[in-house]
């Protein structure tokens, strides 16, 4: 394989924060980063301390971690909603602005950087299953830096969608499961035929 060439693009500092949180650099993380930056710009967002910003993701990919870092949309706060349709689409909502935008990837990825020959060889090795870990990492780096260098509109379509105020994360007291005794959110419990409230795993054991 042709000797790897140096990549001159410097990773943005806030993208490095996404890498640190996620654990590694990858193209999926870049997609989320690009969406977070675009949504912040057009909606005037500030990273959510509570549920001021809501992200509705139509997949469960690496992109979500960039949204968590930059937008403050997290599973724990309840302002990260995952509808796993396997689609590269994300809706970002601002409660204060009462606006929502949906971002969707336009097409299949095609490398457009300077190292086209090297990328093609790496891609072929990955497709055949013969790529080494080093080759896989190199391919991800080439793809990530290529994506970071492109205009947003080359990658995603942007459309304002109808605003609907999302419900806030539900709060409910915990109660002991009538079977295993473990504390469980009361609204997640299931009533059995004998009137006991049990957790979902215990309810399935009786089926």
Automatic annotation (TrEMBL):
SUPFAM superfamilies: FwdE-like. Pfam families: FmdE. InterPro entries: FmdE, FmdEsu_dom, tRNA_methyltr_O. Coiled coil: none annotated. Transmembrane segments: none annotated. Residues 21-156 form the Formylmethanofuran dehydrogenase subunit E domain. This is Formylmethanofuran dehydrogenase. It comes from Candidatus Desulfaltia bathyphila. The lineage of its organism: Bacteria, Pseudomonadati, Thermodesulfobacteriota, Desulfobacteria, Desulfobacterales.
């Amino acid at each position: 394989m042709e000797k790897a060439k140096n990549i001159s693009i410097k990773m943005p500092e806030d993208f490095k924060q996404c890498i640190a949180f996620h654990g590694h650099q990858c193209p999926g993380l870049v997609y989320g980063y690009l969406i977070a930056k675009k949504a912040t710009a057009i909606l005037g967002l500030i990273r959510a301390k509570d549920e001021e910003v809501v992200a509705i993701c139509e997949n469960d990919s690496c992109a979500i971690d960039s949204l968590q870092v930059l937008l403050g949309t997290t599973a724990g706060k309840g302002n990260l909603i995952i509808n796993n349709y396997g689609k590269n689409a994300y809706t970002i909502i601002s409660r204060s602005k009462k606006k929502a935008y949906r971002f969707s990837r336009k097409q299949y990825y095609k490398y457009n950087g300077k190292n086209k020959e090297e990328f093609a060889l790496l891609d072929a090795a990955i497709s055949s299953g013969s790529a080494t870990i080093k080759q896989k990492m190199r391919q991800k780096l080439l793809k990530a830096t290529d994506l970071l260098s492109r205009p947003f509109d080359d990658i995603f379509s942007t459309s304002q969608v109808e605003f609907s105020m999302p419900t806030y994360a539900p709060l409910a007291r915990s109660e002991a499961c009538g079977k295993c005794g473990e504390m469980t959110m009361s609204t997640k419990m299931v009533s059995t035929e004998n009137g006991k409230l049990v957790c979902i795993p215990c309810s399935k054991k009786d089926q």
